[in-house]
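Hey team,

Sharing the Aromatic ring-hydroxylating dioxygenase subunit alpha run so nobody has to redo it. Sequence (281 residues) first:
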Amino acid sequence: MTSEAIRNEWYPVALASQLGPEGRDTRLLGEPIRVDWAAQGRPRVRAADGREMATRLRYGHIWACPGTPSRELFDIPEADQPGRRLVDVGVVRVKCSPLRAVENFLDIAHFPFVHTDILGAEPHTEVGKYDVAIREEVDEVWATKVHFYQPQAAKSAAGGITTEYMYRVPAPTVSILYKTCPPRPGEWDVITLFVQPLEENLCEVWPWMALFDDETPMTDLIHFQQTIFLQDRSILENQLPRLLPLDPGMEIPTRADLTSVAYRRWLKRRGYTYGAQLVAA
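Structure output:
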């Protein structure tokens, strides 16, 4: 039985544009659910016993809260900014903890080794000093002033640049990346990872983007992001331990892991343990 702290969060359960009249049968936190459309095109999510969950339709996805929402669904102001292209990337099923999927998205150090010649390349492997904080006023994890050399930072990038990043974790299974926008200096491209916890060691990952890019075909934008995440999948599915350790003594962090350390501390403080390992095996 999952705790109230876990059940009171919002989770993505379907891509609205791909949800047909027949609906979608899936799982959330280990329990079967049904996602479909009610009257007047309202999204509806029901538990196995027929109980309707609180739902939202936002960022191209249908969101559900199995319990009583502890707060409103997080805001991404860029989603409403004129001129941005909103990209529904699709879904990838990954045999890993949903928390591992989020943590991997926060990891900068793996870029040269996993996303070689795209997001990173040797010998540019050093992660410089950056700032990490749990912002108490919004109860979110933020990493700022992150800089990293990338051979192809985005599909629209013409060559290698030093990219600036900001990472934001507004919910336990959501991560938002703000990064240098090559076609429009002064703006940020927004790339998100929405994670649906099917089981403690199985999840579906829904990437979504809000970009300033009027040139690249939509298919190419989707394919580029899918390529990046599929490179991550093999790493995620072979990580040990399977669940994300929350005890600081279970794994030895480096300077590059400051965001991960803050994320784990934040999860522990919130009492969010689904997909987590609390003590050493």
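The longest helix spans residues 218-236.

Ping me if you want the raw files.
A.
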